[in-house]
Specification:
6-stranded mixed beta sheet, 18 helices, 31% helix, binds zinc ion, Urease, subunit C, domain 1
Length: 535
C-alpha cells in the first residue's frame, strides 16, 4: 500500500520544471513563470513550481528570461544538403571577386585531385563590382578539378570549364532545357559557366554517400538547436527520406520533421503516402514542385519584364515558368494529393508565378482543408494578396530573404512592384496562416535574423526597407511557432506550451523587448526537446 501511495505521489511530480521565467505562447506573453514537463510532454504552466517538484524533479532556472515553445522552420533542405552544410565550402563570407576566388582556391587545395569542388552561398550583389561570375574566375585555381558553386538562392550555379566539359556543354549546344537557361556570350555563344534553374541539372555532381550524410546530420541538427529550432518542414529528394527514417528511429533523436519530397508525377504522391512514419518525429506530409526561379538569378516568373536583366538576358526578359505547370503534370499531382489529403507545396517567387499557382490550387476540391502552401510568395500582384486568406492557401515565407533581396529588389523590378514584395502584414490582414522558415541552407537557419527583418524591416547593410509590411514581435514569433506547426500539420503536438503538448521548450538568453530593439544576437540559453535538455 505504501509503495502504491508513493508511486501515486511520484506521478504528480514533473520530471523537469523550468522556473523563474516569462512564458510566451500562443502569440503573447502570459502571466506564467513556470513550465512543468512530464513524460516528454508539458504537464502544466503556472507560477509556483513547488507543487510540481518532487525529489527527482530536475530544475532549469530561466533567470527572468523568456520561455518559448521550440521554434519551427517550415522550409529547410537538411536531408539533401547536410553534407555540404557540415563539410562543404561556404561562399557567403566573400565580399568581393578576389575573396570568392581565394575561398575556392583554399578549398581546392584541401581536396584530392579528382574530387569535385562543391560550394554554395555566393551573391555578387554586395560586391564592389557586381558583374556576374564566369568560369574564368575559378578555372586557374581549380587545379583541373570540376567545380560547381551554387548561388545563395540555389537557383543558379557557376560551373568551371572542367565541369562544363564533363556535362558536354559547349558553344554548339545543348539548347536551354525547359525551365532552365545556359548563360552564353552573346557574340561567341561560348557558355559563361552560369547555369540557371533546370540547366543546373546538366551538371551531375556525385551525391554524398549515406555514411557521410549520417555523420553530417547530427552536426546540422546541433546547429539548428543552437538557434532554437527544434522542428522543420524538410524538403528533399525521395531517396533522402530514409536518412530521416533512421534518425527518427534512433534513441537519441531530438529533432522533428514534417517531410516533403520533390515530385515529378502523381506516382510520387502515392509513394510518399506509403512511407512509414515515426509519430511526432517524422511524418510524411506532401510533395513539392517549382513554378519558377528566383529574383537574384532573374529567373522569377513576372508579369512585366525585369527593369534590369542580367547582361546576357534579353531586354524584355520576364523570367521562367517550369513546364509542369502548363503541361498538366502539376494538375495531376494536385488531384492525386487532394484525393489522399496530403499537401502540395509549390515554389513561387515572381508575381506571375504566384498568380499561376493560386489558379492551379483553386481547381482542387476542398482546397480549404488541404493546407496547400506556396513557398516564398515574394512578389505579388496586389489583387492576389487577399486570395491567400480567402482560399486558405498557406503563404510559407522566409523573412530573412527580404534582408538579402531588399538590397537590390527595386533595382531589378522597380519601386512599384517592390511595394508588394514580402507582404507579411498584408497577408496576415488577409487572415492567411503566415508560416515562417529559412530555406536553409540558402540562408542560415538562425530564425532570429528573419524575425528581426520581419519586425524592423532592417535589411543587409543596416537600411530599413518597405517598413509598411513590418509585423509585431508577437506575430513574427507566432509565425515561427503555432503557424509553422499548422503549416507542417503538427499543430496538435508542437508550437505551443500547453498541457499535453510535446516538451519542446527554449529558455532565451534574454527578455525580449516587444519593439524588437534587442533582438540582435538572441539565442537560446537552454534547449529542451521532448522534455530532455539537449543543449
Ligand atoms: Zn527551398
Amino acid at each position: 500500500m505504501l509503495l502504491v501511495a508513493l508511486a501515486l505521489a511520484q506521478n504528480g511530480f514533473a520530471d523537469l520544471v523550468v522556473v523563474n521565467g516569462k512564458v510566451w505562447t500562443d502569440g503573447a506573453l502570459t502571466k506564467h513563470t513556470v513550465v512543468a514537463v512530464k513524460g516528454g510532454r508539458v504537464l502544466a504552466l503556472g507560477t509556483d513550481a513547488k507543487k510540481f517538484t518532487g525529489p527527482k524533479t530536475k530544475r532549469v532556472d530561466a533567470k527572468g528570461n523568456w520561455i518559448l515553445p521550440g521554434l519551427i522552420d517550415a522550409h529547410t533542405h537538411i536531408a539533401d544538403r547536410c553534407v555540404g552544410i557540415a563539410f562543404g565550402l561556404d561562399l557567403r563570407p566573400a565580399k568581393s571577386k578576389e575573396e570568392f576566388v581565394a575561398l575556392v582556391k583554399g578549398q581546392a587545395d584541401k581536396l584530392g585531385k579528382n574530387d569535385w569542388i562543391e560550394g554554395r552561398g555566393w551573391s555578387v550583389e554586395s560586391y564592389p563590382d557586381k558583374t556576374p561570375p564566369s568560369k574564368e574566375w575559378i578555372d586557374a585555381v581549380s587545379g583541373g578539378r570540376p567545380a560547381f558553386l551554387v548561388r545563395m538562392d540555389g537557383h543558379s550555379g557557376l560551373a568551371n570549364s572542367k565541369a562544363l566539359a564533363l556535362a558536354g556543354i559547349t558553344k554548339d549546344g545543348p539548347a536551354d532545357p525547359p525551365g532552365g537557361r545556359i548563360e552564353r556570350d552573346p557574340v561567341t555563344n561560348e557558355p559563361t559557366g552560369l547555369l540557371a534553374d533546370a540547366a543546373m541539372g546538366l551538371i551531375k555532381v556525385p551525391t554524398a554517400s549515406m555514411e557521410l550524410r549520417n555523420r553530417a546530420l547530427p552536426l546540422v541538427i546541433d546547429m539548428a538547436h543552437s538557434h532554437g529550432v527544434t522542428a522543420v518542414g524538410d524538403i528533399m529528394r525521395p531517396a533522402s527520406y530514409s536518412l530521416w527514417q533512421s534518425y527518427a528511429k534512433s534513441s537519441r533523436k531530438s529533432f522533428r520533421v514534417g517531410a516533403y519530397v520533390n515530385a515529378d508525377s502523381p506516382k510520387t504522391v502515392q509513394w510518399l503516402s506509403g512511407q512509414p512514419k515515426v509519430a511526432g518525429w517524422l511524418e510524411p506530409r506532401g510533395v513539392k514542385m517549382y513554378m519558377d526561379g528566383s529574383l537574384g538569378s532573374r529567373s522569377a516568373y513576372m508579369f512585366e519584364p525585369f527593369t534590369k536583366p542580367l547582361p546576357t538576358q534579353p531586354a524584355d526578359w520576364k523570367g521562367l515558368a517550369f513546364p509542369g505547370a502548363t503541361d498538366g503534370t502539376y494538375a495531376a499531382i494536385i488531384q492525386e494529393s487532394a484525393k489522399r489529403k496530403t499537401q502540395v507545396i509549390i515554389h513561387a517567387i515572381g508575381d506571375r508565378a504566384n498568380h499561376a499557382v493560386l489558379n492551379l490550387f483553386q481547381k482542387a476540391p476542398n482546397l480549404k482543408s488541404l493546407r496547400f502552401r506556396v513557398e516564398h510568395v515574394q512578389h505579388l500582384k496586389p489583387a492576389d494578396i487577399n486570395r491567400f486568406g480567402a482560399l486558405g492557401v498557406i503563404p510559407s515565407m522566409q523573412p530573412y530573404h527580404k534582408a538579402d533581396d531588399g538590397r537590390y529588389c527595386e533595382d531589378v523590378i522597380g519601386a512599384e512592384r517592390s511595394r508588394t514584395s514580402y507582404t507579411f502584414k498584408s497577408l496576415l490582414n488577409s487572415k492567411a496562416n503566415l508560416a515562417f522558415g529559412s530555406d536553409f541552407p540558402v540562408v542560415t537557419i538562425n530564425p532570429w535574423l528573419g524575425i528581426e527583418t520581419a519586425v524592423t524591416g532592417e535589411i543587409e547593410g543596416g537600411k530599413k526597407w518597405m517598413t509598411q509590411e513590418n509585423i509585431t514581435l508577437n506575430q513574427a514569433l507566432d509565425s515561427y511557432t503555432r503557424k509553422a506547426a499548422f503549416a507542417i500539420k503538427m499543430e496538435t503536438q508542437i508550437g505551443r506550451l500547453a498541457p499535453g503538448y510535446r516538451g519542446d521548450i527554449l529558455v532565451l538568453d534574454r527578455s525580449l523587448k516587444v519593439d524588437g530593439s534587442n533582438l540582435k544576437g538572441t539565442k537560446p540559453a537552454v534547449v529542451i526537446v521532448d522534455g530532455r535538455v539537449v543543449r
